[in-house]
Amino acid sequence: MAVTTATGPAPAAGVWGSIWQGITRSTSGFIGLCLVLSVLLFSFVGPLLIDNHNPTDVSRIWGPMSSEHWLGTNHEGKDTLTQLILGGREPIMVGLMAALITVAIAVTLGAIAGYVRGRVDHFLLQLTDITMTIPFIVLMLVIASFYRTSSPMVVSFIIGLVTWPYLMRSIRAQVLTLKEREFIEAARLQDLGTTRILCVEVLPNMAGYIFINFIIAITNAIYAVVGMYLLGLLPSTADNWGLMIQQAWDNNAFLLPQAAPFLVAPMVMIMLFQIGLVTMTRSLEQALNPRLRDR
Amino acid sequence: MATEIAASPPPDTGGSGPAAPRKNNPLLNRIWRNYVFVKVRKAFVVVFVVANVTFFLGRAMPGDPIDVMAGRLTQGGMSMNEARAIAMNSLAYDPEASLLRQWWEFLVGLATLDLGNTINRPAFSVTEAIGAYLPWTLFSIGAGTLIAIVLGLALGMVMAYRRNQFLDHVLSVVASVLGAVPNYLIAMLLVVVGGMYLGWFNPIELRGTLSPGVQPGFTLTFIGDAFYHAALPIFTYVLAIIGTWMLVMKASTTEVLGEDYVTVARARGLRDSRIATAYVGRNAVLPLVAQIAISFGTLVGGAIFVEQVLVYKGVGGLLLDAVNYRDYPLLQGLLIIITSCVVIANLAADLLYSRLDPRIRK
């Protein structure tokens, strides 16, 4: 990884460069990136290109696939394709937000615990142990029903609040090893202050690692949001892939052949996005971790 | 919480040199610092804290059991006062009791291992309710995990031996895809593809844990029926977790294959099968023992989705009910039991690990 100097931007640029290189170097990584980008285009640019008006129409419940309705219509007679295009924004945004929160908490606590040590470290580790032990889905379930009428923001906050422990532990471990290196020692001798040393010297060295974990956190968060929709724990308002799956499943769509597009289409979108993200991180991991690369 | 942590001496941070006898009894001191004891003590602290967090988390939710039931009754056209009166009579919950009093009763119950009765079905104790559902979840998850780990470790080893060959590439893609797809979507795909399009089974008939009329007991009918109904969940868990294990085992095996002792073993002319089992396999699996236990924790959570999708009557549905009806004792009981399962699994892994690899006991 990039050699650290006291100036901030130089190592950061190196990290982004090697991230880009890592993704494009391997075929599977590149395919993953393409998958992710196309799902993002579909759900963020798509809504700008189509007619967002999607009325219920009782005369065409579970309509077949046709030139007018490419993916047929659903149990309310709404056009499935329109719903599919409009339904990606929310789960993806929630995933992104939740991942940001997870990473922020994990990095902050991990850096503090690893760098400061002592009582603080001990307390944070115990807290991590406890949060890690409660299955996070269970915890999320309880908190989610606590805020029944929750907005996407609240949902992402809840997910972020319960999924940080694993990352925190590995960040802490990395800080522990980085701390012993000469340049950190030098910075400490110059009395630069803990916050500065952590932000300028320590964290940029882990940027690639943090980025990978950010992507993994997105997949976990999307898994969780869609799962919560499936359990009916989130308000059924906007168009949303998770909600589509839940509606399809609750209406026993798997028993009706003509309902297949409505059930399968959102599932496929979510799977494509998740598979894309995961393959992307796999090759990134190999590119950024020289130990894996050489074998 | 803070006081408890402050009270316990840091067990591993000051691990350099022999345990410095502090003030009193050196024997007690040694027991206090004993590896096994430290682990067990920490496990207890975790369960205790989780239990208390659950208690307050539950009470912090808006609406109590009476509200929930009254709300349902008023939907049937009853007046609010009437509905509340009926709810008060049929539920074992006193909304007037102070939080402190409830907490005290909860702590006493915890100390005497009495989890109380459920609120919504006052005749049933929490232990009975959980006892009726938990075995099914443990059974399906246990079988799924076992199959997935055994298969995953074997396939991972094959992949490492055939590194960069066609088989490795194919299996890597399969493992990545399986690892990326959420378990509940795998369950749905199984039902849609296997049940509807290929017609291999009837998903409706497979619902539940047992066919009507089948009595639990040590009979062939019972065991066969239990496996029949658990087949879909088990298969889902296998598909959902095998990918991770294949990749982890591949990485671990690859690492071991590069070690000097493997080269030496080869140079000594040992048979390949012996190298693969006694040298490579053993050392590749060792670092994964802890992960097996940790994966157990996430699995229990994931089971909630899978059980809901496949209508398998395990602990997942019970938990959802407990949350929805604000059945505090049941919710607490479930969380304590689930957490204890995870803690015990972790503890077992730690202890097993320390036996397998004495270096970590320090």
Automatic annotation (TrEMBL), chain A:
Keywords: Cell membrane, Membrane, Transmembrane, Transmembrane helix, Transport. The keyword Transmembrane helix applies. Pfam families: BPD_transp_1. It comes from the Bacteria. The chain crosses the membrane at residues 30-50, 92-116, 123-147, 153-171, 210-234, 254-273. PROSITE patterns: ABC_TM1. Residues 92-281 form the ABC transmembrane type-1 domain. InterPro entries: BP-dependent_transpt_permease, MetI-like, MetI-like_sf. It is a multi-pass membrane protein. It is found in: Cell membrane. Belongs to the binding-protein-dependent transport system permease family. This is ABC transporter permease. It comes from Nocardiopsis exhalans.
UniProtKB/TrEMBL annotation, chain B:
PROSITE patterns: ABC_TM1 (PS50928). It is a multi-pass membrane protein. InterPro entries: MetI-like, MetI-like_sf. Gene3D superfamilies: MetI-like. Residues 134-353 form the ABC transmembrane type-1 domain. The chain crosses the membrane at residues 43-61, 133-158, 170-200, 226-248, 284-310, 330-353. It is found in: Cell membrane; Membrane. Its main location: membrane. Residues 1-23 are annotated as: Disordered. Belongs to the binding-protein-dependent transport system permease family. This is ABC transporter permease. The lineage of its organism: Bacteria, Bacillati, Actinomycetota, Actinomycetes, Streptosporangiales.
